[in-house]
Write a structure and sequence with these properties.
With 613 residues, the protein is of the alpha/beta class. The chain has 15 helices and 29 strands. Helix 3 packs antiparallel against helix 4 and helix 5 packs parallel to helix 13. It is globular, with a radius of gyration of 27 Å. The chain binds flavin-adenine dinucleotide (FAD). Its cofactor is FAD.
């Protein structure tokens, strides 16, 4: 396989570069320059302004209606009260919409300021100030956290004392470090807290029934494991557990615990406390919001499913329990078909994995999505076409440009689902199981309800460079909207980001002042069809791309005039461009060392300087 250097050599010497289509200007709509973030900001602001104007218009109309009501039925006080209530509602809606609009503007201006500073080569931006909140020290450095002097002095129980019988413990329980969510971010943060504050008491509260585990093998390696437990074999051939183990520091002190099957329903910033759904109140000194995301539902698939049995046949895929449910279904001899809705990473990975094991039972695997090809929103069209071809060769039934508009019990087969599909024509598709894999929603409602700022464009809790959302409150992982010095404000859903941001947040919770400045990577493993790629920075098929490929020699058949060699993308790099700036890289079947180099390049070099030296 040709390596990174070989690809660069090819780029300079041989004209094999492929220029992708798509333009950033199209995104901004008004022919403005300024990048995707700015363009999206503009879009968001305008939409909000329109919403605000709409509400104001309705308010004016309701004023007119009100005068009519008063003239015609002066004695009808109840209807007047009703109308007054309407006006009040309209007014508060208008106020909220206008406030939201100004929040957009403020965030936009702040982010532009950071972008300018970065472009001018000034040092890393100073930590941002979170929006003004009651009882939060705006933008205060991490070491300025203090417990509200007015309230009762918290009692710090070793967290492990609360483990197992937490619901019986006297309320409120006080723990110095509390983490909401029990995923990779939480696990990584616990390690960092213990490294900095030896013997610290940390309480993780998770609504899942497993302690923190690695989700990434669930759509890939776990499907190859023969046994029934929580193991998988990694790419080095080592047998590993999905469940994370803890470093010696955490184990030795035994002062950290995890409360499982417990969901936090309220965050009270004023009293530095959280409340679980079963009414337990826990006070914290330092809090991490690591709530990740939850699977996006597809309303049209979920709404008309009557029986429980049928509900079980339509699932999202994010947890160990989801894996177990799907695994059981696919191995059931009565299951003859599975339909995956969604053509992103998860959908494509699952299709490959299922097809591999489904061969045993002769199960038909369908991958259905509205875009023209798999991963179409992220990779150039030619690669998406290439993937369509490879998936089809592997036996996956690929249905591009298809939207599910309804679902019900099949009239033909008991316990099967009939999907209404709008594709080039309207049709129905009968299947024994449906996996909905259409992305996630960040779980930021808890934070928003508490008054923390939520990113109106990308979703997620807005944090500063130290991953701080407010005084003593941090957010990291999939749920955090963070400032990326090279690429602007972002929220990403990557394992590597969860690991690194969790570590930095944990360190800062324990008094550190680390800034988040890592270009996190992610990977997609479709090795059963010969594709594995890693990526850093921004990937969007709306950006211009430059592909550098080590082309495989086409076979005699493929070389015939007019034929298209579909096997050619053996290994290469796709660079994503914003103007002349390289903002992202996708490393297709490339060796690991290329990743580090790509990380250095993102946001720093133009295409011209790269190709000339
Ligand atoms: C099947 C699958 C495959 C993936 N493969 C890859 C890959 O190949 N490469 C890659 O880079 N990334 C991959 N990812 C994404 C990666 O796993 C995530 O980015 C990472 O798990 C994010 O970690 P997190 O801790 O921030 O959030 P999560 O893992 O979502 O954890 C959040 C936890 O918080 C809990 N929670 C939420 N709200 C509350 C509440 N109010 N109270 C209590 N608990 C709460 C949730 O139940 C969950 O347990 C994959 C994800 C999935 C699902």
């Amino acid at each position: 396989m040709s390596g990174w250097k070989e690809c660069l050599r090819l780029l300079r010497l041989i004209p094999v570069g492929v220029i992708g289509s798509g333009s950033l200007l199209a995104l901004s709509g008004g022919g403005q320059s300024g990048g995707q973030t700015a363009a999206l900001c503009d879009e968001g602001s305008n939409a909000d302004r329109r919403a605000a104007l709409e509400v104001l218009k309705r308010y004016q109309e309701s004023l007119k209606e009100d005068s009519v009501v008063n003239e015609s039925s002066a004695d009808s006080s109840s209807s007047v009260a009703l109308e007054l209530q309407k006006i009040e509602d309209s007014l508060s809606n208008a106020k909220a919409a206008v406030e939201k609009y100004y929040r957009y503007q403020a965030r936009h201006i702040l982010d532009k300021y950071y972008e300018d500073m970065t472009r001018k080569g000034l040092s890393a931006p100073a930590p941002e100030r979170p929006a003004a909140k009651a009882n939060t020290t705006e933008g205060a450095p991490a070491d300025a956290r203090s417990v509200n002097p007015k309230k009762e002095q918290p009692r710090y129980l070793p967290a492990d004392e609360t483990f197992g019988n937490f619901s019986e413990a006297s309320s409120p329980v006080c723990v110095p470090y509390v983490i909401i969510g029990g995923g990779t971010t939480a696990w990584s943060a616990v390690q960092a807290i213990h490294e900095k504050d030896k013997g610290a008491s940390v309480l993780i509260i998770s609504d899942e029934s497993y302690p923190p585990y690695n989700r990434t093998p669930l759509s890939k390696e776990r499907w190859s494991a023969e046994d029934d437990d929580l193991n998988f074999v990694d790419f080095m051939g080592r047998k590993r557990s999905l469940l994370y183990s803890y470093s010696r520091q955490v184990g030795e002190h035994r002062r950290s615990s995890i409360l499982l099957n417990s969901r936090v329903k309220k965050l009270d910033l004023e009293n530095s406390s959280i409340e679980t759904e079963d009414g337990q109140v826990v006070q914290y000194q330092s809090l991490l919001i690591a709530t990740g995301g939850k699977a996006h539902p597809v309303e049209s698939v979920h709404q008309d499913l009557g029986s429980d049995a049928l509900q079980h046949r339509v699932m999202s895929f994010r947890t160990i329990d989801d894996f177990k449910a799907l695994d059981k279904l696919v191995r059931d001899p009565n299951t003859k078909s599975v339909c995956i809705v969604g053509g992103g990473f998860l959908g494509a990975e699952l299709a490959c994995s299922l097809k591999r094991i489904a061969k045993l039972n002769d199960v038909q695997v369908t991958l259905m999505f509205p875009e023209p090809g798999p991963l179409f929103k992220l990779i150039p069209r030619y690669l998406s076409e290439f993937l369509t071809y490879k998936l089809a060769v592997a036996g996956v039934k690929v249905m591009p440009s298809s939207i599910v508009t309804g679902a019900r019990e099949s009239p033909e087969k008991r316990d099967s689902v009939e999907l209404d599909v709008v594709s080039f024509t309207k049709k129905t598709l009968e299947t024994d199981a449906v996996v909905v894999a259409v992305g996630i929603q960040p779980q930021d409602k808890l934070a928003e309800d508490a008054g923390l700022e939520v990113d109106q464009i990308n979703g997620g809790v807005v944090v500063n460079a130290e991953l701080q959302a407010a005084n003593g409150v941090f957010a990291a992982g999939d749920v955090a909207s963070f400032w990326d010095a090279a690429l602007g404000r972002r929220r990403v859903e990557h394992w590597d980001h969860a690991l690194v941001s969790g570590r930095i947040a944990g360190d800062n919770m324990a008094g550190g002042k680390s800034m988040y400045g890592v270009q996190s990577m992610y990977w997609c493993d479709l090795s059963s069809i010969g594709v594995h790629f890693e990526a850093v920075g921004l990937q969007s098929s709306k950006l211009d791309t430059v592909g550098v490929w080590n082309l495989k020699e086409p076979s005699r058949f493929e070389n015939r005039p007019g034929s298209f060699s579909r096997n050619k993308y053996e290994c290469g790099i796709v660079w994503y461009m914003k103007g002349k700036r390289i903002v992202g890289a996708l490393l297709w079947n490339m060796p690991r060392e290329a990743l580090q180099e790509a990380r250095q390049i993102i946001g720093k070099r133009s295409w011209r300087t790269l190709s000339s030296g």
